[in-house]
Design a protein that fits this description.
The chain is an alpha/beta fold and 397 residues long. It is 37% helix and 27% strand. The chain has 10 helices and 16 strands. Helix 4 crosses helix 10 (379-395). The longest helix is centred in the N-terminal third of the chain and has 25 residues, at 10-34. The chain binds nickel (II) ion.
Length: 397
């Protein structure tokens, strides 16, 4: 094929470019994988990102949201600013893959594939730098810290992530071991949950276990309350709205013959719908207040709203999915929402956004995220580069 034809065909050009840099991106991924860093400690990782952007001749700033990096590629024509976001942090867990590039840091592991995300976005930067003259608009490359702690996006937003130049739409992505490598996924509307947490301290009055009438038993009260909380989802929230109320910790008491003074329990509330989110919070507050009357205990409730639900924008979703199909064929499928949380939601709350699922499942394995033996298929890096680069080209056409 003559070179002029190749140059005008974005599919072939993007495919060739992604294929060419794939070995280098895998090497970067393995380096980041071997030295995982927790939330807001990603200094080595962000230094590597900055070095790669410098090598590519891409203007960037470091220290955005403490350890975040933001690069900017200006297109050949004016147009909107598209942010593409990758997260960089690892998890506080020991790796058990036995791979030659396994974590060198005890108790730290890239078990959510954020090493894959970081190297994928470096690849997207390389491809889009080459395609820049064809872009009508600019691309902001967002390397975010602290996604697992759910504080990184907020820190970057506080540092003006969406300003100068002003971002008008955003793309996020996450590797998905449930999808085989080579496949991509999407979910319309709310795809990840609002993630709130609560802590209840049940104050009773201590006394002898043999004389319960002289005490106010916070253990029995806590047991009642936790059972009552099971009715929030089953009896108060619209059955077609997904919601979860889970109590994940409970502490109280020290001996069989003592009724203690208090019991503490903690839980999480996950919802996709704003109405369900409000209903759950109101019900938990009401049950805690009611316990004073029915069980004679005083409940102290701390309720903290976390990230909102991640809501995909229909237009950005449609345009991205059709771009991926134009680049790679029928490789994209619709999927279900999940009640996991993700702070890309804070960006999606401010500008129209879409999070693409990138299949990372290795043939013959059944990997899960946050598992100590997680081994994504590294081919997903170059495939993700192709998909996201083509999407950027379409969104800025
Ligand atoms: Ni993750």
């Amino acid at each position: 094929m003559p070179e002029s034809v190749l140059a005008n065909d974005p599919s072939a050009r993007i495919h060739a470019a992604a294929g060419q840099i794939a070995p280098e991106l895998i090497a970067i991924r393995r380096d980041i994988h071997a030295y995982p860093e927790l939330a807001f400690e990603e200094t080595r990782t962000s230094a590597r990102v900055a070095a790669e952007l410098s090598r590519l001749g891409i203007f960037h700033r470091t220290g955005i949201g403490r350890t975040g990096v933001v690069g900017l590629i200006e297109g050949g024509r004016p147009g909107p600013v598209l942010a593409i976001r990758a997260d960089m942090d690892a998890l506080p867990m020991a790796e058990r893959t036995g791979l030659p590039f396994a974590s060198q840091v005890p108790g730290r592991m890239h078990a959510c594939g954020h090493d894959i995300h970081t190297s994928t976005l470096i690849g997207v930067a390389a491809v889009l730098k080459e395609l820049a003259p064809q872009l009508a608009g600019s691309v902001k490359l967002v390397f975010q810290p602290a996604e697992e702690a759910l504080g990184g996006a907020a820190a970057m937003l506080a540092d003006g992530l969406l300003e100068s130049p002003k971002v008008s739409l955003a793309l996020g992505f996450h590797n998905h071991p449930d999808l085989p490598v080579g496949r991509f996924g999407y979910c319309r509307g709310a795809c990840l949950a609002a993630s709130d947490r609560f802590e209840v301290t049940v104050h009773g009055r201590s006394g002898h276990a043999a004389h319960p009438e002289t005490a106010i038993d916070p253990i029995v009260a806590a047991a009642h309350l936790i059972t009552e909380l099971q009715t929030v989802v089953s009896r108060e929230i619209d059955p077609v709205q997904p919601a979860v109320v889970t109590v994940g910790a409970i502490h109280g008491g020290s001996a069989v013959n003592i009724i203690p003074d208090n019991v503490v329990f903690r839980g999480t509330v996950r919802t996709l719908d704003a109405g369900a989110r409000h209903t759950a919070e109101a019900a938990i507050r009401r049950f805690c207040e009611g316990a004073a009357h029915t069980l004679r205990v005083r409940c102290e409730l701390e309720y903290a709203r976390g990230v909102p639900a991640l809501v995909n924008d229909d237009v950005v979703l449609e345009r991205t999915v059709s771009a991926v199909r134009a680049q790679m064929g029928e490789v994209v499928d619709g999927g279900k929402p999940s009640l996991g949380g993700e702070d890309f939601a804070l960006i999606a709350e401010r500008v129209p956004a879409f999070q693409l699922r990138i299949g990372s499942g290795q043939p013959g394995r059944a990997d899960k995220l946050h598992n100590s033996d997680y081994q994504p298929d590294e081919r997903c890096i170059a495939l993700g580069v192709e998909a996201l680069s083509r999407a950027a080209l379409e969104l800025l056409s």
